[in-house]
C-alpha cells in the first residue's frame, strides 16, 4: 500500500498543528462558533447530539494492521472503546472530547492517517472497490489513481469552500462495487482500442434529499488527464453551483438545471485551457504510485491445501465459508468478509478488542492489510484457503463471523437519532428489531440488501437498497418511509416508494411482509430485484397495507 | 481594515470610489460603474482599480483587465469560495500581473489558500487579524498542488 514520503508526512503533521491552533483559539474565544464550524468540519469534526463526532479517513478503504491498531488505541484512549465504520469506508468516533481532538490527530499522523476533508464543503475521501487488486474482472487496480486524486484534492486551496460536499468514487472493474453512479464524480477505469488506460467519467450522481444517478460527461479521459479534467469540473461547479440553498447546492442540481450538454461544454472549455498545463500526469508519477500497490507474492497452488479438505469439520464453518467468503483472482486464495452486523452490535460498530483481533488476524493470514467496505463491514482479501478454518475459529470467538454477508441482516444503517443531530428518527433500534426477527431465516431468504437512513440526508443509502427505510418526522413522532427495488451495482436504480409512511412499531412487521411476498413469489433462486421487476410493487403494497 | 501583502502590513494607497463622488487618483471602482462609464474612464490617465463580486461574470471584464492596476474581489462570506476560482482565472488564464486583493469576509486562517490561488493582497479586519494572517502564511512548508 501507499507509504508516505517526507512531503506527505510533513503535510499532515503541519495540518495537526494548524488544527491544534484553531481549536485553541476557539476554546479561548478568539474564533466564533460560526467561524470555527467550517474549519472543524473540514477536519472531520462534527458537534453531535451528545458529543463531538470525529470522522477519520480511510483512503479507498485500505488499512494496515498497524493503522487498525491505532484505531483501536484511539477508541480506547479517547472514546468509549468502540468505533463505527461508515458507508464511505471511513471510521467515526462518537465520544471524543473537543480539546483532545488535536492529540487524536497527532496519533493518527504517526501512522500516516488523518481526518482532512472527511467532512465539510470540500472534496471528501476518495472511495473505491473494496476488492481492488484481488478481483479477476479488474481492468486496472483503481487504488493508485485514488491515491493520485487524494493527493491533488488534499488541502486544495481553490476547492475548500465549495457550495457543498463533493465525493469521488473510482471503480476498476466493469462490475461496479464502488457505487460510482451515486457520487458527484464517478470514475470507471477503461482501456481504449490501443490499450491506453483512462476513465469513463460520470458526474452529478448522489443520494441525500434528491437522489440522482450520475450521467456520463466524458466517455474516455486518458489517465494523464484525469486531474486536469477533474479540476475543470470542480472549477465549473465552484463558480456556478448554487449557494442560495444548501439543499440545492450539490453538483447534481447544477448539472440538472444547466443540462448535461451545456455543463459538459462549460467543463470542456475550461479543460482546454488547462489540460496541457502542470496538472498533466507524467508516466513517472503514475508509475511511482502504482509501484506501491504491486500485487503480493502469492503461494503457488501446488504448495497449499484447500478449504474443501476442511469442510467436514463444521456445519457452521461451511455456512460461513459459503456466505462470507468469495473467490480471489489467485487460485488457492479467498476473500474473507468480516461481518460487523452481529446480533449484539449496532451495524458497523466494532470494539477496541475486536479491532486488535482483526489486526492480528490480518498479520497472521492476509499480508497485514484490511479493507473497509461500503456495507460497513471489513474484509481480509488475501487469505489462503488452507487457513480459512483457523481464521474462522478466531473470528467466531471474537463475534466477527456472523454468516450474513449480503443478507437482510447485513443492513446498512446510519447512526440515526441516537447520535446524529440531523436525524428525524432512530435507526439502530429498528436495525436491532430486524436483526432479531431475521437472524434465523436470513440465509434461507438469500441475498437481500436493506439500507436505512434516519433522515432524508440519506447517509444510510436507503434510496439504493432493494429494501430502503427512511426515517421521517411526523408531528414529533418517528415514522418510516419504505422503498423497494433500489440497486447500487453497475446499473444503479432508485427505489420506488411503497406507500404512506409506517409507524415505528409496525416497521419490522412490514419488512417481514415484504420478505414473505418475495419468498412466496420468487422462482427458485430468483433475486429480490428480479422478482420485484417481474411482479411489480402491488403485491408488496397489498400485503403491507392490508395488514396495517 | 488592514492590508497585508508580501507577508507585511502595508499602507493602503487605494480608495474605494462611491458612485456619486468625483473620481480621485487611485480609485477602486465597482464593475457596474466601469461598464457604464467604460469609454470615458479609458481616457482617464490615473491608475484605476476594479472591484468585483466573487460571482462576477469574468467575460464582462476579462478584456479590460489591462486597464487596471488592481482587481479587488469581494468575498461576501468566508465560506463562499467563488472568489478563489475567479482569482485563479484572472491570474492564470488571463495573465493579470497586477495586484489581486481579497476584500470582505476574510479569515486569517484562509490567508495561505488565498495567496495560493492568485491573491497577493488581503484585507483583514484589523491589525491583530492581519498579523495572525501573516503568521498563518507560514503554517505549511509543503503542498500537493502544482500550477
Number of distinct helices of chain B: 4
Shape of chain A: globular
Which class of secondary structure composition applies to the elements of chain A? alpha+beta
Q: C-alpha Rg of chain B, in Å?
A: 15 Å
How is the largest sheet of chain B built, in terms of strand order?
2-1-8-7-6-5-4-3
**Mean pLDDT over the full residue set of chain B:** 95
Q: DSSP strand (E) fraction of chain A?
A: 15-25%
Largest sheet of chain B, in brief, is: 8 strands, mixed
Mean pLDDT of chain A: 94
The residue fraction in helices of chain B comes out at 25-40%
Number of helices of chain A: 17
Helix content of chain A: 25-40%
Please report the distance between the alpha carbons of the first and last residues of chain B. Answer: 31 Å
- Sum up the overall morphology of chain B in one term: globular
Radius of gyration of chain A using CA atoms only: 23 Å
Largest interface, counted by CB within 8 Å of the partner chain's CB: A-B, 33 and 28 residues
Q: Find the count of extended strands of chain A (DSSP E, 2+ residues).
A: 21
Amino acid at each position: 500500500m501507499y507509504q508516505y514520503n517526507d512531503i506527505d508526512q510533513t503535510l499532515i503533521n503541519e495540518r495537526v498543528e494548524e488544527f491544534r491552533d484553531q481549536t485553541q483559539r476557539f476554546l479561548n474565544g478568539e474564533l466564533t462558533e460560526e467561524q470555527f464550524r467550517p474549519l472543524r468540519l473540514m477536519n472531520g469534526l462534527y458537534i453531535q447530539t451528545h458529543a463531538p463526532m470525529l470522522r477519520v479517513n480511510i483512503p479507498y478503504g485500505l488499512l494496515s494492521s498497524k493503522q487498525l491498531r491505532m484505531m483501536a488505541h484511539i477508541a480506547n484512549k479517547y472514546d468509549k472503546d468502540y468505533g463505527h465504520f461508515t458507508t464511505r469506508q471511513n471510521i467515526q468516533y462518537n465520544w471524543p472530547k473537543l480539546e483532545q481532538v488535536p492529540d487524536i490527530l497527532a496519533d493518527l499522523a504517526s501512522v500516516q492517517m488523518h481526518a482532512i476533508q472527511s467532512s465539510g464543503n470540500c472534496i471528501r475521501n476518495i472511495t473505491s472497490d473494496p476488492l481492488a487488486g484481488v478481483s479477476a474482472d479488474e481492468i486496472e487496480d483503481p487504488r493508485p489513481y485514488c491515491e493520485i486524486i487524494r493527493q491533488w484534492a488534499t488541502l486544495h486551496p481553490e476547492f475548500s469552500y465549495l457550495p457543498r460536499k463533493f465525493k469521488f468514487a473510482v471503480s476498476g472493474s466493469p462490475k461496479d462495487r464502488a457505487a460510482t453512479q451515486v457520487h458527484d464524480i464517478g470514475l470507471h477505469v477503461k482501456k481504449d482500442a490501443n490499450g491506453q488506460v483512462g476513465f469513463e467519467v460520470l458526474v452529478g450522481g448522489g443520494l441525500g434529499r434528491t437522489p440522482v444517478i450520475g450521467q456520463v460527461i466524458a466517455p474516455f479521459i486518458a489517465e494523464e488527464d484525469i486531474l486536469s479534467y477533474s479540476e475543470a469540473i470542480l472549477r465549473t461547479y465552484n463558480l456556478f453551483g448554487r449557494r442560495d440553498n444548501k439543499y440545492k447546492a450539490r453538483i447534481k442540481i447544477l448539472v440538472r438545471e444547466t443540462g448535461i450538454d451545456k455543463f459538459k461544454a462549460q467543463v470542456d472549455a475550461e479543460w482546454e485551457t488547462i489540460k496541457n498545463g502542470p496538472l498533466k500526469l507524467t508516466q513517472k508519477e503514475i508509475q511511482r504510485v502504482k509501484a506501491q500497490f504491486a500485487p503480493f507474492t502469492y503461494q503457488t497452488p501446488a504448495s497449499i491445501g484447500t478449504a474443501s479438505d476442511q469442510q467436514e469439520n463444521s456445519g457452521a464453518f461451511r455456512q460461513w465459508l459459503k456466505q462470507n467468503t468469495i473467490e480471489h483472482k489467485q487460485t488457492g486464495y479467498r476473500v474473507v468478509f468480516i461481518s460487523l452486523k452481529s446480533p449484539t452490535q449496532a451495524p458497523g460498530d466494532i470494539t477496541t478488542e475486536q479491532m486488535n483481533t482483526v489486526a492480528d488476524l490480518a498479520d497472521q493470514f492476509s499480508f497485514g492489510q484490511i479493507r473497509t467496505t461500503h456495507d460497513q463491514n471489513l474484509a481480509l482479501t488475501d487469505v489462503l484457503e488452507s487457513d480459512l478454518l483457523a481464521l474462522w475459529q478466531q473470528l467466531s470467538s471474537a463475534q466477527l463471523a456472523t454468516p450474513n454477508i449480503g443478507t437482510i441482516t447485513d443492513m446498512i444503517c446510519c447512526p440515526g437519532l441516537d447520535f446524529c443531530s440531523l436525524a428525524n428518527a432512530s435507526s439502530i433500534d429498528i436495525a436491532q428489531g430486524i436483526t432479531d426477527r431475521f437472524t434465523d431465516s436470513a440465509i434461507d431468504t438469500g441475498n437481500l440488501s436493506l439500507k436505512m437512513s434516519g433522515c432524508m440526508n440519506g447517509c444510510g443509502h436507503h434510496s439504493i437498497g432493494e429494501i430502503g427505510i427512511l426515517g421521517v418526522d411526523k408531528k414529533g413522532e418517528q415514522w418510516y418511509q419504505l422503498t423497494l427495488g433500489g440497486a447500487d451495482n453497475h446499473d444503479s436504480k432508485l427505489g420506488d416508494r411503497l406507500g404512506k409512511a409506517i409507524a415505528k412499531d409496525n416497521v419490522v412487521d412490514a419488512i417481514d411482509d415484504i420478505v414473505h411476498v418475495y419468498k412466496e413469489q420468487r422462482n427458485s433462486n430468483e433475486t429480490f430485484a428480479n422478482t420485484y421487476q417481474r411482479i411489480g410493487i402491488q403485491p408488496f403494497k397489498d400485503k403491507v397495507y392490508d395488514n396495517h | 481594515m488592514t492590508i497585508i501583502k508580501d507577508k507585511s502590513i502595508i499602507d493602503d494607497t487605494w480608495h474605494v470610489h462611491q458612485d456619486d463622488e468625483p473620481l480621485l487618483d487611485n480609485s477602486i471602482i465597482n464593475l457596474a460603474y466601469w461598464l457604464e462609464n467604460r469609454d470615458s474612464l479609458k481616457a482617464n490617465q490615473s491608475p484605476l482599480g476594479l472591484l468585483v463580486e466573487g460571482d462576477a461574470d469574468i467575460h464582462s471584464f476579462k478584456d479590460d483587465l489591462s486597464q487596471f492596476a488592481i482587481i479587488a474581489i469581494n468575498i461576501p462570506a468566508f465560506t463562499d469560495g467563488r472568489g478563489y476560482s475567479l482569482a485563479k482565472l484572472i491570474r492564470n488564464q488571463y495573465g493579470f500581473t497586477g495586484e489581486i486583493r481579497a476584500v470582505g469576509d476574510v479569515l486569517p486562517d484562509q490567508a495561505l489558500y488565498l495567496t495560493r490561488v492568485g491573491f497577493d493582497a488581503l484585507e483583514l479586519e484589523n491589525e491583530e487579524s492581519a498579523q495572525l494572517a501573516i503568521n498563518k502564511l507560514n503554517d505549511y512548508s509543503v503542498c500537493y498542488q502544482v500550477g
